[in-house]
Design a protein that fits this description.
With 203 residues, this protein is an all-alpha fold. It has helices spanning 2-9, 16-36, 40-43, 48-60, 76-86, 110-134, 153-172, 176-197. The protein starts with a helix and ends in a 6-residue tail after the last helix.
């Protein structure tokens, strides 16, 4: 695909904002195609789809084909019950246009993961600075009731950010980029535990 070749040549020019923008536009285009076309010609480009249509037509000319026999078959009800009992549960149908263009962006989603890494690093540093300000001498006059539990609001903020990242990543890919995201999550959970949780333990 020409788009893949162009991206490979200009990989250094791709930033996360541009990447997410083009993925969103491409996904919208694929959804538009799915609403307007069936995509039957994409299912088999080697012509096997056409062959299956011809076979269906030839079978319909067969006088012994159950699908064309008049509804006087005494075993019709039994056959219908058996077919219903063996039919698989309905599954979500993915159109042939799903990922037909946007899949070429997946090798570059490491740019997105690296951007999340930087954002999480900045977020942890902000949490550390806020924690230092709360324990500064100017705030030392504020007394806590004995036996009260100190709740770190940054903990909730961190997991809300994690949730947003997971939702966004699943919309982009559930493959290797998702594994990269889990590694990044592990890294900053350790950072949070060392820089904030341990420092707030009772002494």
């Amino acid at each position: 695909m020409e788009l893949s070749k162009l991206m490979a040549k200009r990989k250094s020019d791709i930033d996360v904002k541009l990447l997410l923008f083009v993925i969103q536009r491409t996904s919208n285009f694929e959804n538009l195609l799915s609403r307007r076309f069936t995509g039957i010609t994409l299912e088999d480009v080697d012509g096997s789809a056409l062959k299956s249509k011809i076979n269906k037509v030839s079978q319909s000319l067969n006088p012994f084909d159950d699908s064309v026999v008049d509804g006087n078959n005494p075993f019709k009800e039994d056959l219908e019950e058996e077919s219903n009992s063996l039919s698989p549960a309905p599954t979500m149908q993915i159109t042939p246009f799903h990922g037909i263009v946007s899949k070429c962006f997946e090798p570059y989603l490491n740019i997105y993961i690296e951007s999340l890494d930087k954002n999480l690093n900045d977020l942890i540093e902000r949490f550390v600075q806020d924690s230092k300000q709360q324990h500064s001498p100017s705030n030392s006059n504020v007394t806590q009731p004995e036996g009260s539990n100190v709740i770190l609001s940054s903990c909730a903020d961190l997991f809300v950010f994690y949730k947003k990242c997971m939702v966004q990543c699943t919309q982009l890919s559930t493959g290797q980029p998702m594994l990269g995201l889990t590694t990044t999550f592990q890294k900053y959970l350790r950072e949070y535990a060392i820089k904030l949780l341990q420092n707030n333990l009772p002494k």
